[in-house]
Structures are given as C-alpha cells and as structure tokens.
Amino acid sequence: MTCNHEKNGFTLIELTLVLLLLSVLVAVQLPRMHQRQEKTALSFESETLRRAMDLASLKARMEKREVRARLDEEEQRVYFEEMYDPVNRPGDFMQVDHGPLGRPVILSVQAKALGADEMQLLWRFMPDGEIQGGGVLLEDKTGRRMQIPEAEKDDEEKNA
After folding, report:
1. CATH code where residue 139 lies
2. Count of the separate structural domains present in the chain
3. What percent of the residues of the chain are helix, what percent strand, and what percent coil, each to the nearest 5?
4. pLDDT on residue 19
5. 151 occurs within a structural domain
6. Is residue 17 part of a domain?
7. Contact 56/101 with Cβ under 8 angstroms?
8. Contact partners, residue 127, CB within 8 Å, separation at least 6
9. DSSP H or E run through 63
10. How many separate helices (H) and strands (E) can be counted in the chain?
11. CA-based nearest residue to 94, from 107, 106, 79
C-alpha cells in the first residue's frame, strides 16, 4: 500500500510563523512612523506661521495700516488684527475677517508666546515694513520643540 501525499499549500505552523514575523515588523516600525508624523506636523506648523507672517507684513505695507498677530494659548490659535482707521482712530484694531488672514491659524501643536505682552501679541507689522515682536515656541506631543525666532526684516527689505 503506497501513501501518495501531495503538498497542496502551507501548513498551519508556517502560516503562524509568517504572521508572527509580520506582527514583529509592524511593532518595530509603528513608533518610527509616529515620530516622523509628529516631526512633520511641527515643521508644517512652523512653515504655516511663517507664511502667515509674510502675508501680514505684505498686507500692512499694501494697505498702509498696522497689522498684528495675537496668540490665544487656550484655543491654540493665532488671530490677525488690523488697525481700524489709522487716521481718525489710531490704536483701534479689529480682527481681519476677509482674505487669507481672515481665518485664524489653528495649531495642532502646543504654542507658547515668547516676549509677548499681556494681550499675547506676537508680532506687529508696520506699514513701513518693520516687524516688531517676539517669537513662538512650538512643542509637539513627543516633546520636540521648535522656536520661530524673533521676527526680523529680510536683508533685502532692509536695503530697499
């Protein structure tokens, strides 16, 4: 009597070993992927704030009125305000409600104002191109920090 066994697939032990190896690989790579995502979020937020600063500076120069950025640390949002009427009512500001600065910058990382006053003003963008203010310290969930340095004019703007 001859036994004719043909192998038509994988055994249960082989399948279990493959699944075990795959789960080990996933467990090792998952934290690395999460760290990359957090690092990307921090870079994205800093770039978003820098671009908003550029827009605010441009708005101040074009409209010949002061624009300022204010951080709400509770809501983690940056609001932009413009001088209401520089000629008749200097010092009165209203929140920008139109254009790209009309919506607040909503931060997905923790932000803390550096060198801000009691109103949490981050920067003041003057009509002559001057930028006054402190900086912002951004911190992600893993504890990585990035500081957006004190706002300064570019060398090109200083020479213009």
Report:
1. 3.55.40.10
2. 1
3. 35, 30, 35
4. 94
5. yes
6. no
7. yes
8. 60, 61, 63, 64, 65, 66, 86
9. helix 12-63
10. 2, 9
11. 79
Residues 6+ apart with CB under 8 A from 120: 70, 71, 72, 73, 113
Residue 126 tokens, joined? 């003057």
Whether the CB-CB separation of 139 and 148 falls below 8 Å is answered with: no
Predicted structure pTM score = 0.65
Q: Which two tokens stand for residue 43?
A: 């870079």
In total, the chain counts a number of residues equal to 160
Domain that holds residue 120: 31-159
Residue with structure tokens 């931060």?
A: 107
Tell me which DSSP letter residue 150 carries: P
Element (H, E) at 47: helix 12-63
> What pLDDT, on a 0 to 100 scale, did the predictor assign at position 119?
64
Which residue is listed with tokens 């070993």?
17
CA neighbor of 36 nearest in space, from 147, 144, 149, 148 = 144
- Residue 112: pLDDT band (50, 70, 90) is confident
